[in-house]
Amino acid sequence: MATSHLSRKLWAMAAAAVGLGGTAVAQAPKAEIVLARTPAVAGVNVATPTAAEMANVKVDVRQWEAGKDGVKPRGVIVTDAGGRKLRQFIDTTGGDRWNILSYYVDGVEAFRELDTNGNGKPDTFRWLGPNGGKQGIDANEDGSVDQWVSIAAEETAQEVFAAVAGKDPARLRAVLATEKEIKALGLPAAEEGKLLKKLAGAEAKLAKVTADLKVAAKGKLVHVEMDAPHTTARDTLGTADDLVRHRAVGLLVDTAGDGKEMKYLTAGEIIDGPTAGLTGGADEIADAGGATDIPESIREVVAELGKVSPPKDPADMPRYHLERAKILEKCVAGTSAAAQLPWLKQMIDAYAAAVEAAPDNADAMKRFRAWNESIQQGGAGGGPRRLHPLQRRRFPRRVVDSRHRRRPGAAPSSRLASGHRRRREGDEVPDRRRD
To answer: The whole model's pTM is what?
Structure first.
């Protein structure tokens, strides 16, 4: 990708539009030229207007007040027919190269690229808004993250799946802790040795699970299942900080992408590689035998999950979650002991999501409350009679009641209002700090 050449060409046009570096002209660069610049990382969700919508796309050239360094940031902003941002490319260094490139979805910043060394190639990426919150560094500037600065547990699971599906050990290495990082924890020698041993075998595990699962090109991640993080206090370990980790994260994978074959993948701690099957975490969940397949008793039922049509819009969310919950209820009924745990938790989450989306849905509320009471009472009240013992200890009590929901149009609580600030309309001055 000729990033440097394209960036210089487009900036020259934008600079001329505001009288920077040449004679002033009346018009900004064409939208087609600016929108030709796409994220350096493949597969990022950003808004791109159709050919029919291009006629109403607007490009503005902007220049902001100088910061403490005396440099006046300047760039281009592309908006759609409704005035929502599509792109905002800015040069904050005065080097005539965009070094902060922001991409939007529904007017919300969804992805940001930064060129921190001024060579015209992005080397730092941030997923924002609807795309999540991870941030990674691309040291060799090839469009792939080599090291994650910050990444949530759910996003780590997604990266592990991508590594399995793409047979990509480099992608797995990016989310693994390094030997240096493990040694920097200052753990007791025995604990450190265990972690280093797992780290050494991580890529071999990836190779094995890739061969076992055989995820097709159209395969997809259906659901991520995890529990509260496992924390060991620093005074127990004799370290400077607490050790916080997810023992295991379960991934329900549609291997072919057609809903016909579902399999489980367990992503271990970030110092360990993935394994096929639901193996659980340490001694907290019984080993399911390392089986790569969904239990035979529910395989046909699980396939129905892939047939549930995605929600068309927010109003369709209750239908989507309720349909999934009823299918998952069949999965719970067809399993027992440790094998029942992931289906039970997915089902409760689905019913809870349906209630949260439509608190007046009597069917969803009735089933959610029945199952919640059943779990608290150890299987009584219309729920399963064969609950795994850990379900009562580890499953969170989530009671959703419509009377506790904020009324439409009501102001948020003072805690939330004081703790978070949304950017105001027109608040476009770029952040000059290095991300």
So the answer is: 0.63
